[in-house]
Amino acid sequence: MRTKKEKDAYLIVQNERAELGGGIKRIDQQHAKGKLTARERLNLLMDPGSFQEIDKLVTHRSKDFDLDKQLILGDGVITGFGQVTGRLVYVFSQDFTVFGGSLSETHAEKIVKIMDMAMKNGAPLIGLNDSGGARIQEGVVSLGGYADIFYRNTRASGVIPQFSAVMGPCAGGAVYSPALTDFIFMVDQTSYMFVTGPNVVKTVTQEEVTSEALGGAHTHASKSGVTHFTAHNDAQCIFDIKKVFGYIPSNCEELPPEQPYELQGDELRPALDQILPENTNHPYEMREVIKEIVDMDSFHEVQPDYAENILIGFSRIAGKSTGIVANQPMSYAGVLDIHASKKAARFVRFCDAFNIPLLVLVDVPGFLPGTDQEWNGIISNGAKLLYAFSEATVPRVTIITRKAYGGAYDVMNSKHIGADMNFAWPSAEIAVMGAKGASEIIFKKEIAEAADPKEKHQEKIEEYTDKFAHPYHAAARGYIDEVIFPRETRHRLIRTFEMLKNKVAVLPRKKHGNIPL
Ligand code: HXC
Predict the structure, then answer these.
(1) Pocket residues for ligand 1 (CB within 6 Å)?
(2) Are residues 146 and 220 in the same domain?
(3) Is-catalytic flag, 172?
(4) How far is the CA of 136 from the centre of ligand 1 (A)?
(5) Which of 245, 262, 279 is the last residue of a domain?
(6) How does DSSP assign 367-394, residue by residue?
(7) What are the pLDDT digits (tens) for 108-121?
(8) CB-based burial, 282-294: b 16+ in 10 Å, e otherwise
(9) What is the pTM of this model?
(10) 256: in domain
């Protein structure tokens, strides 16, 4: 390598070697599993020509188990930066064709380097995970590498958005990096996450379970709530990341990206007047309400298959990114339980951390009663949602569409815990509890002594309903700022969020709060 030509040729060959990862055979195996390679995934994610790779020629330093004879340039992870829809991001993409994407000391160092750069430069971090976990031959240095990443995930939390796509295996302690990030995206049938795999499970508990059932995308989307988005394949997973990215600012100091929007006439939505059923015990689809309120097709639901009694997701109102939390009467009458409280609380905290205003739609009969809920901690879990709303300083607006009973009224972004504007529809019922339960308690004696207790109970239910099942006591006290017709909702929200756009709210000075975890 003496001449300039030879030196140039050497660099070209080195780049080509790095780009080939674990070689054609392993690339074919990756494709045969229905997975894209690490580079193909990056090509889909990044704006064309924008990706700039760093540490492409890094190799591991291990000598044990003949590893020094297996030096693959890049060491199983591609790292760098570039643009996604014109905005700077830092990214790593694990290459399963190189030692199964396993994490060595140097592999970890590469990830740590771009994490530090992302933090310094205030840009989001996107990790595409596809790894057999700690590089077994390396032992503790690999574990140390994981911990270096976990530490940075935690330090970066709330400063820059962090997305984790799990696009293959993710087992053991490795799951904790995605778990520390803001959103997890999984691919159905080709990805899984678990702390201990099926073999260990069988040894310890005698339970037989497949990887898919234990920790596949469907399991984490519906049972554990660990994942936020599930895709059919790698390409859709990348598309999902880009979609969510569009609602989120690059760091906690910035406002979310806006889309241009021209007001269209009075912005009335008459269809909203028709959604609620006449019988107040009948369900209706809260997604229909959301659809009418937000900009066309802009609602992007998060965790749609987990705790279905509450809906969370991103949307746009007059072009502005808005986080939505809504009780869902179609599922358990929209009751608040442990899972729903945790799901909503985490979302509220994400939106608050990244300056995304919150819209809360309320139709909640209360907290779910029962031993299962009490023994599993509905008290401390319900308190998470209360805490998350109380602490949030972003603009917060509430619409009570129908029921707002008991403690759930307080929790669901009531005026008392810092909401900025609270509206109610004429159909709203704001009271300590529903008319049936309330009349049973306060008219117990009268009902028992009546000639026809059933008829008396019905009479008392009606009396209580007339007295309390409406929004006007709350409106009389200013707990509700305005009672509005459903059709006016979008119009009011556009004006209200515009009015609140310069809101400043400061929390008391503290090191950090103590959320009831
Ligand atoms: C080194 C690994 C590896 C690992 C896989 N490979 N995992 N090399 N360290 N952790 C290598 C294999 O030797 C193989 O090399 C290639 O990657 C592909 O692996 P296969 O087994 O052929 O692929 P597949 O059948 O798809 O199975 C994938 C797999 C399996 C399920 C991930 O490889 C596996 O069980 N790996 C071990 C997983 C594990 O126990 N990891 C440690 C978890 S604990 P060749 O050369 O044949 O292509 C952990 C702790 C983290 O990670 C702690 C943080 C605090």
Answers:
(1) 26, 99-100, 102, 132-136, 143, 146, 169, 171-174
(2) yes
(3) yes
(4) 8
(5) 245
(6) BPPSHHHHHTTHHHHHHHHHHHHHH--S
(7) 999 999 999 999 99
(8) eebebbebbbbbb
(9) 0.95
(10) no
